[in-house]
Amino acid sequence: MVYLTRKLEFSASHWYHNPALSAEENKRIFGKCNNPHGHGHNYTLEVTVAGDPDPVTGMVLDLKELKEILEREITQRMDHRFLNYEVEELKGQIPTCENIAQAIWKLLEPKIQKGRLHKVRLYETPDLFAECYRNGVHPV
Amino acid sequence: MKDGLKIELGRRYRFSASHRLHSEKLSEEENQRVYGKCNNPHGHGHNYVVEVSVSGTADPATGMIANLGDLDAFVEREVIEPFDHKLLNEEVAAFRESVPTTENLCKEIYQRLKHFPKAKLERVRVEETSNNAFEYAGEEL
């Protein structure tokens, strides 16, 4: 089994706010992330696909194809967007790194037909990231 | 989680410390041969990076596995404050018994962080320099 990883970057804004909580609780839990004007990050996404290289092409999957999937599913959907309001998959959720990583997993998994999606790692800053993978799989 | 997905949160921290690699179980010559310039009796230092990964369920109310403020405060208290700008051999009790290689440092940090009450510690990765990194995930693997 070989694991191949492709990176991409996108920039987006968000804010953390739970309408079921009071203004004071929101402020206490989310701190400066609770600013209603939102704030932004340069996100870095690493997508890892696992599979055996095809004996004819030597590829797990064509990187060009993966690039197109990522462009269509992630960049077009999330790049330069306000994640709370403009991304259907995140509506009703707090767009934390954990929730965005999980939404990205759910978008990509059915689209990757050769090999299988192994891991998604999303950096919100160079020092903070979330990972999503199948239970019971070692997160190489 | 019920959809079979596992979510981890990773956070990177930094501290600077000095150490000397020297084993009481080896002779002077062997220490010199095994550890080379790291055996310098005056010690030397590194800017360490500690990457901490925890897992759990994202709380539906907050979208978070663990509040970063809680994780930061815990790591600060258990690791950064006792290790930063210290001579590891002398000032961290565990390294009076064992050599403060980054392998042992990684295990010591794991032991200190595994009791984090808000999420499950998955692994600790320590970068001694930008070219050397070590990971420890407990003995279950």
Task: Give me a quick take on this structure.
Chain A is 29% helix and 32% strand. With 140 residues, chain A is of the alpha+beta class. Chain A has a 5-stranded mixed beta sheet.
Please supply descriptive tags for the structure shown above.
heterodimer; A: 140 residues; alpha+beta; five-stranded mixed beta sheet; 4 helices; 29% helix; elongated; B: 141 residues; 5 strands; 28% helix; 31% strand
The residue ranges of chain B in which pLDDT falls below 50 over 5 or more consecutive positions are none
Label the overall shape of chain B: elongated
Helix residue percentage of chain A? 25-40%
Order of strands across the main sheet of chain A: 3-1-2-4-5
- Number-wise, the strands of chain A total 5
Question: Major beta sheet of chain B, specifics?
Answer: 5 strands, mixed
Report the largest inter-chain contact: A-B, 30 and 22 residues
Strand order of the largest sheet of chain B: 3-1-2-4-5
- Please write the string of helix (H) and strand (E) elements of chain A: EHEHEHHEE
**Helical run tally of chain B:** 4
Instruction: Give the overall pLDDT of chain A as a whole number.
Output: 96
Total beta strands of chain B: 5
* Separation of the first and last Cα atoms of chain A: 11 Å
